[in-house]
Write a structure and sequence with these properties.
This protein has about 150 residues and is mostly helical. The protein is about 85% helix and about 0% strand.
Length: about 150
Amino acid sequence: MRTAPPSVIMMSSGALPSLRGLVTRSALLGGAALLPAVGLCIAVERLDIARGLAVGLILGVLNSLLLAQHLDRMISGATGVDRLRRSFRTNRNLRFALVLGCSAMATQARGIHMVGLVVGLAFFFALSTVVYCRGVLRRWQREEGQAA
């Protein structure tokens, strides 16, 4: 059985699932998983922690959506790999500025717990990594099944 090199698989249209779809799935799972923790924080009257968790989740989703949009354009062929290499640093800087800027504003705002924000952000990044890997693995397994 002969398969195409990874570079050909990566560049063929539809070779990977839509990354924005995977971000949406991660956001829904993350929201559902954090909902009990947020509810518990509200029940014990720690609204600052609940706000921190929610803001962390939202920041993680926005960061991932910016990256997914950029990579989806490259995968679909709308943006060439050379252009991606040139603009990737700007995109990365924008994403980090978003996360760091919002985190810095959260430290100054009353009512948002900074540790809660970091926990919400870290939770989303860990969850989304698992969802992305699983989605890509399933797609590759499906393609291997078709090639056999």
